[in-house]
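Renewal narrative, Specific Aim 1. Our central claim is that a sequence can be written position by position from structural information alone. The example that follows is taken directly from our test logs and has not been curated for this report. It begins with the structure tokens describing the chain, in the order in which they were read.
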């Protein structure tokens, strides 16, 4: 990750080395691609600033990155019984940000044809020529790179129907934590107030250590200071106000982006969260990014052009939109909606829906489980007026 005094031309320029940019560059390094690749990233260092989770069988192609996994997950409201889920052969799996960054950077550093330019920003993209020999000029603070293909994963302002704002702490306690170490609190203590729906997300990492996040769904982003105060109040309520804080993470995820991506110059494609990787109704993105990186690396290795993140299938896109519109229109009923899904949809079907693998029967159970009138009112698109928020790549 050293600064270079000059920037040579490249077959591919990846703008942004977040989850998407690093995933693609690492895959190209692992496949021993012949392409000359330059990766442009403003940050100078990587920290343990985020987590990614997903459902998968115990063994898969990302198993070596999984820091912890659980065979159960839970939904609960402020009152009433919790809904406990398990699916044979599936585990909820957790990848630490720093582990992902470290492995990707090691693979990139080991490839002579892939260079990561840290502390550098791309300022302008300009098409050069037309046809199959056309290039793209990538202007940076240290010069220009001419590239055959450009993948832009930079965060950009995206207006959305709702925002998922969250803050979290990894804590270590001197005494046993009040959590089941074999079960994730996926959406715990769901409730609403004047600020929208809120809930606790809990990953128990040991009897005395856990990642605890406080999340809100709202029509505008929630300031970090408010979330932090609410998280501290929740930790105090749980008797964990004196637990040692190991690290912090947080963010704002736009749910249900409104409008199309900006038009890109010829030879440029979008990827990452701002390219459509973020699942509108859930906020899950990691496996979607990995699937895109796998497909894009294969296309490039076969001599084809770079591909952007694929568009959302019509049925999934439509149901996500209807769900988000119903949540926005009836925020006080949002916990009811999620508990209805947790109760009425078999756990395997709900996991398939959240993991982009839903069958028609899963969609049918989803529709049957939810109250009809609030959702039928949202069948016709009703884009609200919202503020755009930049999202990480």
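The sequence written for that structure reads:
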């Amino acid at each position: 990750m050293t600064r270079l005094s000059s920037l040579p031309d490249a077959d591919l320029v990846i703008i942004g080395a977040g989850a998407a940019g690093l995933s693609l560059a690492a895959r190209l390094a692992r496949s021993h691609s012949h392409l000359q690749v330059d990766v442009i990233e403003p940050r100078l260092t990587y920290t343990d600033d985020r987590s990614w989770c997903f459902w998968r069988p115990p063994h898969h192609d990302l198993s070596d990155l999984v820091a912890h996994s659980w065979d159960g997950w839970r939904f609960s409201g402020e009152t009433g019984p919790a809904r406990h889920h398990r699916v044979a052969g599936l585990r909820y799996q957790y990848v630490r940000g720093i582990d992902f960054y470290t492995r990707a950077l090691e693979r990139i550093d080991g490839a002579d044809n892939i260079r990561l330019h840290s502390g550098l920003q791309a300022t302008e993209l300009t098409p050069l020529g037309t046809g199959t020999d056309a290039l793209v000029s990538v202007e940076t603070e240290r010069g220009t790179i001419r590239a055959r293909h450009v993948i832009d994963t930079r965060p950009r302002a995206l207006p959305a129907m709702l925002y998922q704002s969250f803050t979290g702490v990894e804590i270590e306690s001197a005494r046993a934590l009040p959590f089941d170490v074999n079960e994730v609190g996926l959406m715990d203590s769901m409730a609403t107030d004047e600020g929208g729906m809120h809930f606790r997300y809990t990953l128990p990492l040991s009897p005395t250590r856990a990642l605890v996040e406080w999340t809100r769904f709202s029509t505008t982003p929630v300031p970090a200071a408010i979330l932090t105060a609410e998280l501290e109040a929740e930790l105090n309520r749980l008797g964990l106000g004196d637990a040692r804080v190991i690290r912090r993470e947080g963010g704002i995820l736009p749910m249900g982006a409104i409008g199309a991506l900006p038009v890109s110059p010829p030879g440029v494609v979008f990827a990452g969260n701002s390219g459509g990787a973020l699942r509108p109704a859930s906020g899950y993105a990691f496996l979607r990014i990995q699937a895109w990186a796998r497909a894009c690396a294969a296309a490039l290795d076969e001599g084809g052009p770079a591909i952007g993140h694929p568009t959302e299938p019509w049925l999934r896109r439509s149901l996500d939109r209807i769900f988000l519109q119903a949540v926005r229109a009836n925020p006080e009923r949002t916990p009811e909606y999620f508990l209805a899904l947790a109760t009425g949809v078999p756990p395997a079907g709900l996991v398939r829906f959240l993991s982009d693998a839903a069958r028609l029967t899963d969609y049918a159970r989803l529709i049957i489980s939810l109250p009809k009138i609030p959702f039928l009112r949202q069948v016709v698109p009703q884009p609200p007026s919202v503020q755009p928020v930049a999202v990480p790549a």
